[in-house]
Amino acid sequence: MASPSPHDRSRKDDEDDPVEQMISRTGCAELHYAVQECMAEHQDWRVCQNQVQTFKDCMMSFQKARKEQLIKQRSASTESSPS
Fold it and tell me: Which domain of life is it from (predicted)?
């Protein structure tokens, strides 16, 4: 019987890991896994710069969208609150 892959996404460990949970909520999880796979294969972060940059771009887009959402919520709550 083959041993499970260290990057098997069905492991319970990933469900309990707060970092894994946070990344999965961003929509960038597959890109994060691509960075991990590259690092596991090459053991050299310089070889994985394309994967790192793609993951970084995804996270930056998520953070920008999240910031805009929070600003909209804040402005909507100040407009509706009585003065």
Answer: Eukaryota
